[in-house]
Amino acid sequence: MADHLTSWVLALVQTALFVAGAPLLAGWLKRVKCRLQNRRGPRLTQPYRDLLRLFRKELLLPEGSSWVFRAAPYVIFGAIVLAAAVVPLIALRLPTSAIADVIVLVGFFALARFFLALAGMDVGTAFGGMGASREMTVASLAEPALLMAVFTLAMSAGTTDLSVAIQRILSSGLVIRPSFVFALLGLLLVAVAETGRIPVDNPATHLELTMIHEAMVLEYSGRHLALMEWAAQIKFMIYAALIANIFLPWGIAVGFGFGALALGAAAVAVKLALLAALLAVSETLLAKMRLFAAPQFLGFAYLLCLLGMLSHVILEVGG
Amino acid sequence: MSLSLALWAVLGALASGLLGLAADRFPAPAKAAVFALLGLSGLGAVLGGGDALLRGLTTAQTFPLGLPWLHWHLCLDPLSGFFLIVIGIATVAVSVYGPGYVREYEHGRQSTVPLYLFTGIFVSGMQLVVLAADAFSFMVAWELMSLSSYFLVAYQHQHAANRRAAFLYLLMAEVGGLAILLAFGVLAAFGGGFSFAAMRAAALGPGWASVAFVFALFGFGMKAGLVPLHAWLPEAHPVAPSHVSALMSGVMLKVALYGLIRFTFDLLGGPHWDWGLVLLLAGSASALLGVLYALMQHDLKRLLAYHSVENVGIICMGLGLAMIFAGTGHPRLAVLGLIAALYHTLNHSLFKGLLFLGAGAVLQRSHEGDLERMGGLIGRMPVTALFFLIGCISISALPPFNGFVSEWLTFQAALQAPALHSGVLRALIPVTAAALALTGALAAACFVKVFGVAFLGRARSRHVRHAREVDLGMRAGQGLLAALCLVFGVLPTYTVQALEPIAHQLLGRGLPSASAQGWLWLTPVSPQTASYAAPLVLAGMVLFGGVMFALLNARRRTRRVRRTIPWACGFGPLDARMQYTSTAFTHPIRRIFRPVWEIHEEVETGGDRGLRPAALRHRLHVEDRSWRVLYEPVGRWVAVAARQVGRIQTGSVRTYLAYSFLTLVVLLWLIT
Question: Is the ipTM of this complex over 0.85?
């Protein structure tokens, strides 16, 4: 019973860490990117200050918006935090990971996106509709690719439960499987599209013709905007943690001892920092694509994931 | 006990139709009695079906009706019980919703008698189909259902388009009925009898079994709207009155699927894996094309009808997986596929019924069925909007509502493909799962469009701007279905447990692993493979979102939130024409998947004034390819064949006498 309680407490602590650490990761990404571009970046804690400032500011609502506009930030935040709760960050075998498997995780993202797009439509401006239309288009191409990558992993690990899957990958040792390499590449591309990074979307722009995510949250202010931004940061961290822990699971805590947990936390911090640095490099090297080039980008991601799955079916199962 | 309850339900629906005959003389009491009896009939169906399903009982009875040598066999087993529940729930919701909705027709030019009469016959026909236990009574009930719904489709026959849709519907229903008759014929020939019991005992070779399956797939698939036989469905379903559309799309398609399940799993016995593959591929194609065609629609009810094609496809994917697994000796996984399909059947009847009722509410209050002229209805019809939103979330397969659970189960079944020996199947099944993922994502896009354009933003026409909320009964009918969408989404373990008797009946085993971890955890294969705790998901979302809400809004209760003008690029005040329309919303998708549709698009610029044309006219017409590829050639062949046959009609008496004489000679030659 005590063990049971400890694991639930640990799960809550891990979720809190996820929620609290997400702005830090965003700050780190921004700082590395600035360094690469020979600029002086903001402090690592700048995202926290931004959030705090937004939370304190007055809330303004656009005329003619309904309760959907006001409810959306809370629904999105709730769905994304719940998604964070089921992703293993520093330890495996936590009870929360059994609440939802990886398909449900994709479902949480879809729910958050659904309300985000509706909130964009609620305002009744051209921008809101434009953002919603583009977001749903990009998502409808990214989601199958994401699920394809997930299916490859699920089929080779024999489970869609993230914690169990990571455990099985850990126990099988360091084997470079072709299916994993393809799935990793595909997942990286999907993650870039889903979190609204260059080259699919640019989080730093308010240029009318190109924006996707920013167009939907254009009318948000104050605490609503803070929740939206925070949720986006958490979502980014979820993708980073997924990639880090599925493909490079070493270091993650299997038991609940203090040493193991400390090692797990340190390992995941290093992995996330490296991943964010990698993204910063790619964002520095690449330019944003036209909107109608995005389908080709995502089609490529889908193809990689499909190749991963086929190579799993043909090379790894048969024989 | 349960069978007699079900029979009372059938009689109740029939009586409701007959009472409708009095509607011209006593409008108010007849209406009350018609809908009360319809509601009781639905309740009886739910109770009778529930009793049979939950207790796993089979009761059969013979009635001295029908042909002298072939009495009607009726039988209520868990499978028919489940479909009775599906029919019953929708009937109850419609009977609550109906009185408010038909008010529109009461003062119209035509009598409400046909509406009441054929609705009653239609419901009793559907109930009788699932109870029938011999081919004769099955076909009688089937035709009762098809013909009465033809009159409902043709109810508003003043419009030529409606008459055309109704004729198309009748034609397709009869062609499909013919195929079903042939399928039964194959079984009856080998089994030596028309009762289902005799057909079950028939010993068929694989060749004849496949022939029977192909006929059944064609006949039932046509009624269910499988691609490419679907083209009648989006024509016919939307033109019926909305509460009948809800019954047709929500329930009648399910009765066709019932026929398919009964025929392949029960009567043919032991499904072959290659039939499953056919069904899986047809299902994937229906799901994907259904949603893509739905995206391009801007008539709300037509869009919903295309989504029925999509959902029938998803159900058929589950059934196909079940057949593949059953045919290759994996009964446990077959049960998973079957339960996923049945669960989605139930879910689709709930949310599609809900959405059609919502569309009817909008139609009644604004007289507007075109999305491009709606907008901002959430402010005018808040309750309908809330229920419609629940329907949208459910059909988009988002947690924690019901559509998600059944799609999740279908995914889980598909992910068990590595258990199969054939490498082709192992590679193909995950690809169909990816098609399902694409379908789900596109459905979400489509319903963001529907809800965003119809209910959010600003009103695009005068009627919509002045729409009022519908009456209590219509709200209650929608509320019932909306509540059930949530209940079946949050309590999947109980639902799966309740569906197990059907699996026992058809496949000889249940799915004990699904609820082995208690009611909180749905673990279809094993807790190590996948688990989903829907109640905890709902609780977690309410907790995290709610805590945030409480924290942020605790102190600010007293201060009023200011409202400001949204940003419109400085072009002066916003107006409704600045919003994204339904066509604009789907433009990127139309561009990406261009080859799927037949698109006729033209842009005219008028009043040439150099760089700024004075007038701009954009015409867009998106057509279903199946018309040109499948229906028009068949129609042409029929016309050509008719002309050839028509040559023998000379119109002169002498020729006809010669025909008679020749026939007589040939007949004499034959018998001697």
Answer: yes
